[in-house]
Design a protein that fits this description.
The complex is a heterodimer of chains A (about 300) and B (about 250).
Chain A (H helix, E strand, L loop, with lengths): L1 H8 L1 H18 L1 H4 L31 H37 L1 H15 L3 H12 L3 H28 L2 H8 L4 H37 L11 H9 L10 H25 L1 H15 L3 H6 L1
Chain B lengths: L1 E12 L6 E13 L4 E6 L5 H8 L7 E6 L2 E2 L3 H4 L3 E4 L13 H11 L7 H11 L16 H13 L5 E5 L7 H16 L4 E6 L2 H7 L2 E6 L2 E7 L9 H12 L1
Helix pairs in contact in B: 3-5, 4-5, 5-6
Classes of the chains: A mainly alpha (about 300), B alpha/beta (about 250).
The structure holds adenosine-5'-triphosphate (ATP) and magnesium ion.
């Protein structure tokens, strides 16, 4: 919980967490908060400018852009987070097994990871999408297949360092079962490291999904996705450049929010960076800093 | 009580495939009797800590067995409540997320002791190691080195185990604190229910605490003798070790 305390003191972290919170909530509640049906085609309203009914205007089929952006959160962010969670989970299981039990388990698992990591990621992703056909679920599957090995490696390194601690040795010596040690000692210790790597890779995943959708390899019409909306706007890039604005900004803002959060988590967990940021705060808040630190 | 028979251990040095093996322990056999305090002394790198890890069942010997009351220590159930340890590094011996109370309770839970008596038991233990009862809700970073090591000792004796292994348990403490902790260990030893294996490179600390001393060199037992007969060691190595400690 010290992580939480640290983050709540960092205003960039608070800001990015609020932005992310709003985005996630909007995505979950899309059917209730979207002002219009995102799939309703109204040729009468093609390229209509913003109005009271359609806040961000209408696209080339007269669909409500704002509603499509809101529905797009589900595909651009929520599903990406689910895929991330799945690959982190697989990576964590393997990383914990390898880092904690060492020896032969470690050697075998890490060789498998090395094999997975030796494929060029983008090429493999395109290959998987090529074999399975375009579609968001195939891209996400490709993500999970390609990313778990990297998570496993990073988590293993972190777990290994904590498995050497004397309190873990003591727990083993007094006959506590491995499962309990992993849950009570290893998980809380490794969780911050997992948070750092997971938050760090969200951004690239969001961008990749949007990128692949932009190339029409991702989600298929009529569903809304930010990358695909950009692609649709591309056709009228010169006559109506403002259509690129909404999906483009949506991507930039959410990636930035996750990026800032990732940085803040890292700062909050690294004692060396923390003192630096504490110093920065001291300057800003002068004598209030004392209360902050005592918190 | 705790008995090692023909224990060998080697570690791989260098790479996974290319590396050669280096034997750290060679055919180590000894027994620590019930209620006895056995000191293991030797130079740095002689394999004392490695032997300690094997005795605690944390690592598996390549050959030979370690048994506690006739049962193999590699079996988790043999160790639960019957074997315990205090390590050198008091900072990494306590989980930073655990309070003193949680840390002391950990081995008691593993030994499946009755839960109702635990609260009072923790109070008694803290008193026994000379800490105020209010310390039970403190976190490790709020303790001094000596206090942390006392908590480790309280944790080690909480299940009244048959045998406790102390690996350099006082070495990283301040000299005055060292004396206090040694005194504490000695008073605990007087209670006589537990065997102690005291691993150290400090001959004087071993002589103060132990009934019998085992001199260890390059992974082999060089000589074992009663503490009272420490003056009459036979091997040249042991004599050198003693002489060097006395001059310092
Ligand atoms: N896990 C390991 N892998 C490889 N080599 C090891 C391992 N553990 C110990 N060794 C080697 O075994 C030898 C004995 O180490 P050990 O820690 O048992 O010595 P020690 O007697 O406890 O020394 P000290 O008094 O400095 O604590 C050392 O040469 C060390 O390099
Ligand atoms: Mg040692």
């Amino acid at each position: 919980m010290s992580l939480w305390n640290q983050l709540s003191k960092d205003k960039w972290a608070v800001a990015s967490m609020s932005v992310i919170g709003v985005i996630l909530l909007a995505g979950v509640l899309a059917p209730w908060i979207a002002p219009n049906d995102p799939y309703a085609v109204q040729m009468r309203l093609r390229f209509a400018s913003p109005s009271w009914e359609y806040w961000l205007g209408n696209d080339h089929l007269g669909r409500c852009i704002l509603s499509r952006i809101i529905y797009g959160i589900r595909h651009s962010i929520l599903w990406v987070l689910a895929a991330l969670a799945a690959s982190v989970l697989i990576g964590a299981l393997i990383g914990f097994a390898a880092g904690y039990f060492r020896g032969r388990t470690d050697a075998v698992l890490m060789r498998i990871c090395d094999v997975m990591l030796s494929f060029p990621g983008y090429v493999m992703m395109l290959a998987i999408v090529g074999i399975l056909g375009p579609g968001l679920e195939n891209i996400l599957l490709a993500f999970i297949v390609m990313k778990w090995a990297w998570f496993a490696r990073v988590i293993r390194t972190s777990v290994m360092q904590y498995a050497e601690m004397d309190y873990v040795r003591f727990a083993k010596a007094v006959g506590i079962r491995h499962r309990t040690i992993l849950i009570r000692h290893m998980l809380p210790a490794a969780l911050p490291d997992i948070a750092v790597i997971a938050s760090g890779s969200i951004c690239s995943m969001i961008l990749q999904v949007s990128g692949l959708s932009f190339l029409s390899l991702g989600i298929q019409a009529p569903y809304a996705e930010w990358g695909m909306m950009l692609n649709e706007a591309r056709a009228v890039m010169f006559s109506r450049p403002e259509l690129m604005l909404a999906p483009g900004l949506a991507i930039v803002i959410s990636v930035m929010a996750f990026n800032f959060l990732a940085d803040s988590i890292q700062v909050a967990l690294d004692p060396k960076l923390r003192t630096k940021s504490a110093r920065r705060r001291t300057k800003e808040a002068e004598n209030k800093a004392y209360e902050y630190v005592r918190g | 009580m705790l008995k090692a028979e023909g224990v060998d251990k080697s570690y791989r040095v260098g790479g996974m495939f290319a590396g050669s093996k280096r034997q750290v322990l060679h055919d180590v056999s000894f027994e620590c009797a019930r209620g006895e305090c056995l000191g293991i002394i030797g130079e740095s790198g002689s394999g004392k800590s490695t032997l300690g890890r094997l005795l605690l069942g944390i690592e598996k010997p390549d050959r030979g067995t370690v048994t506690l009351k006739g049962r193999n220590v590699m079996d988790r159930r043999t160790r639960a409540g019957a074997l315990s340890a205090v390590f050198q590094n008091y900072r990494s011996s306590l989980n930073p997320y655990f309070t003193v109370e949680q840390a002391i309770m950990e081995p008691m839970k593993a030994a499946r002791l009755a839960r109702d008596g635990m609260e009072e038991k923790i109070g008694e233990l803290l008193q026994l190691v000379g800490l105020p009862a209010g310390y039970r809700s403190k976190y490790p970073h709020e303790l001094s080195g000596g206090e942390a090591q006392r908590v480790c000792i309280a944790r080690a004796i909480s299940t009244e185990p048959g045998c406790i292994l102390l690996d350099e348990a006082v070495s990283s403490l301040d000299v005055s604190v060292q004396a206090q902790v040694l005194e504490l260990l000695r008073s605990l030893k007087e209670r006589g229910r537990t065997s102690y294996i005291f691993i150290t490179h400090d001959v004087q600390a071993a002589a103060y605490l132990c009934d019998r001393i085992m001199i260890f060199r390059d992974g082999r037992i060089e000589e074992t003798l009663e503490t009272s007969k420490l003056g009459s060691v036979r091997s040249a190595y042991a004599r050198k070790l003693l002489a060097s400690s006395i001059t310092i």
